[in-house]
Amino acid sequence: MGEGFKIQGRVINKIQGFYYIETENNEIVEAKLRGILKKNNNKFNCVVGDLVELSEGNTIEELFPRKNILTRPVVANVDYIAIQFAAKNPVLDYERINLLLLNAFFQKVIPAIIINKIDLLNADDLSCIKNKLSFLNKINVPLFLISTKEKRGIKELEDFIKDKITVIGGPSGVGKSSLINILQDEQVLKTGEISDRLKRGKHTTRDSNMMKLKVGGYIIDTPGFSSIDIPNIKNLQELISLFPEFRNIPPCKFLNCSHTHEPNCMVKNLLEKKEISIDRYNFYEKILNSLNERWNKYEK
């Protein structure tokens, strides 16, 4: 390599302070972060998903601007958050779906809902789920009904996530590992160094791992979805902005309408006309009540 050699790539793994970069030539390079880029051991200095530039000697010299960054998992430049549940076994938790959608909108990443195990349903059960989730179409959230056991619905999902970076998460028992195994490239991105570092005991620190897809792009498994709570929403207007069905409607009588008790509220009018899902509205009220308690606590 000549003097001044530079190469660009994406961080696909980070283990024990070492970064694994997939370069433009589809090679995996182990690299260290240049000292000047380190800031008090901040875990956000350089993260999985970052686009970087390497110098000769495999040192990360530059981080390119991020379009977004998630904190759970810590990953940058994400295109989609895929939220996976099972149609049955375990029971489908609709409120959890709404909470995860709220978090996705808060993090400004496009969400998609995946419902696995549809092979366990009869026609009536499947129709019921479609009806309960019909609100997704109105808020432009894609819905994929799949069976990893029977390989149903996989092609449609692959077409959606092709060449994108997708974070996938969901509660235990929903078949997430089975889906990832179907989607993942058979050529697992792994080097001898990565394998060695993963064997350094159960306390090995490991960040998110980007797995290459057969159709192009990456998928990132997300542990801890069951512990996700209401995000740090600052005020009423921010909360309202996270409900897409409340946008692009005629204005309410009051500019600061909370859409709960005020007269001539357009959201309540649309609710009466069944143009807004009653389940979604009830979820909104529940979140608002929880946030009011939080906000009042902070104000004291």
Strands, helices and their partners?
Blueprint: E1 6-15, E2 18-23, E3 28-33, E4 51-55, E5 59-63, E6 69-71, E7 74-76, E8 80-86, H1 94-106, E9 110-116, H2 123-132, H3 135-138, E10 143-145, H4 154-161, E11 164-169, H5 176-183, H6 192-198, E12 210-212, E13 217-222, H7 236-241, H8 266-272, H9 278-299
Parallel strand pairs: 3-5, 8-9, 8-11, 9-10, 11-13
Antiparallel strand pairs: 1-2, 1-4, 2-3, 4-5, 6-7, 12-13
Average pLDDT taken over every residue? 88
Helix tally? 9
Helix content: 25-40%
Shape: globular
For the sheet with most strands, the description reads: 6 strands, mixed
Give me the secondary-structure category: alpha/beta
The low-confidence parts are 187-195, 198-206
Strands, count: 13
Helix-strand topology string:
EEEEEEEEHEHHEHEHHEEHHH
Order of strands, widest sheet: 10-9-8-11-13-12
Rg measurement, Å: 22 Å
First-last Cα distance: 62 Å
Account of the 3D structure:
This protein is of the alpha/beta class. It contains nine helices and 13 strands. The strands form three sheets. A six-stranded mixed β-sheet has the order 10-9-8-11-13-12, with helices on both faces. Strands 1-2-3-5-4 form a five-stranded mixed barrel. It is globular and about 65 Å long.
Which keywords apply here?
five-stranded mixed β-barrel, 28% helix, globular, 300 residues, six-stranded mixed β-sheet, 9 helices, alpha/beta
Quick summary:
This protein has 300 residues and is of the alpha/beta class. It has helices at residues 94-106, 123-132, 135-138, 154-161, 176-183, 192-198, 236-241, 266-272, 278-299; strands at residues 6-15, 18-23, 28-33, 51-55, 59-63, 69-71, 74-76, 80-86, 110-116, 143-145, 164-169, 210-212, 217-222.
